[in-house]
Amino acid sequence: MAALLGHILKNQKNSFLLRNITTTLDTISSSSLHQTPFIVQTLSQVRLVGNVAESVCGFDEMVEGKDRKYYMLGGKGGVGKTSCAASLAVKFANHGHPTMVVSTDPAHSLSDSFAQDLTGGNLVPVEGVNSPLYALEINPEKSMDEFRAAGQKYGGGGVKSLMESMGLGAVANQLGDLKLEELLNTPPPGTDEIIAISKVMQFLESQEYSMFSRIVFDTAPTGHTLRLLSLPDFLDGSIGKLIKMKMKLGSIFKSLLGKEQPQNDPLDKLEKLKERVAKIQDLFQNPDTTEFIIVTIPTVMAISESSRLHASLKKQSVPVKRLVINQILPPTSDCKFCSMKIKDQQRAIETIHNDSELAGLRLCKAPLVDMEIRGVPALKFMGEMLWR
Ligand SMILES: Nc1ncnc2c1ncn2[C@@H]1O[C@H](COP(=O)(O)OP(=O)(O)OP(=O)(O)O)[C@@H](O)[C@H]1O
After folding, report:
1. Is 218 a catalytic residue?
2. pLDDT tens string 247-288
3. Residue 109 alpha carbon, nearest atom of ligand 1
4. Hey, what domains does the chain have and what are their CATH numbers?
5. C-alpha 109 – ligand 1 centre gap (Å)
């Protein structure tokens, strides 16, 4: 085996490839799982790497500084968001950043990507990296149920009966006009994700999690993400009305009973939710802390969708600088079908240069490899090719 590897290394002229192979082999030598198949597959990838060698994604800039930064990877279903997000998280951790990678996608694939059980809604440590790396799969439906339960207790009928008992039935009826119960029971699409993200933000605010300097989100497919982004204003509006109501209530309460309205009342809870929603909006829109990376594949359909996604993100003031083109085929092939496919991909990539939404973005390219990208060594390998 060593002789074979030595031969391959001697015959590689590109130092990047050498570096890549060497680091990959270092990892492989320390990995006991699936050793042989991974090495065999790795050798065949050497040929594929050359195709994307010109891609420089500006990883130096991404890794710079100790302040916390958020990276959100989004795009059409199945383009490789999870693989790209997980490989970025591994690379950050290997460059000294305590990192957290979070999935809020109902169809989680982080566990598959890391080849590790990450279900359960808690932070799970990922082994095999140089700095702490933790993964978290948040179940948006479960978070939504918790929110609904809280809503039922505090926001829906609870508010109404509390006010009725205070002789404020008329105000309660006005509150009813806001259809709060309906909002809690049949919330607009995307609410589940915002609740999930708000849960992550709560985690991150605590001292225990202050060590994380890079947070990578594997977001849900395009449509959900867009709906999610338009949600804060909606919630903000509804909750804003409730808060005004609360202020009115406060003075009525005082004049009726001669004392301040009790703290920790239902509307306080809603006010807190509003604050969290505002924080999430800031998280998405702050260019100093956040970057949304669009992931696509070289097909005209995926690229058109990415273009629309960028237009919507821009409209929502979400900072976007990079476009990942994943699963690029090698430049040439003897197989007729593959040659046709390669030409097709090249034509699709050309459309990026002529697309007013995408042309200005930095292109980060990853080859299509002939293996599933699973486990830390494979993710590290992918990261070496993509994030540089
Ligand atoms: N560059 C690549 N080369 C080969 N296989 C890849 C590549 N990128 C991703 N894959 C494979 O494609 C499949 C889908 O990848 P992944 O789960 O990362 O996509 P996704 O966009 O997150 O999907 P979903 O939208 O369903 O969550 C996985 O089996 C993964 O190993």
Report:
1. no
2. 666 666 566 556 555 555 555 666 666 676 677 777 778 999
3. 17
4. 59-386 (3.40.50.300)
5. 9
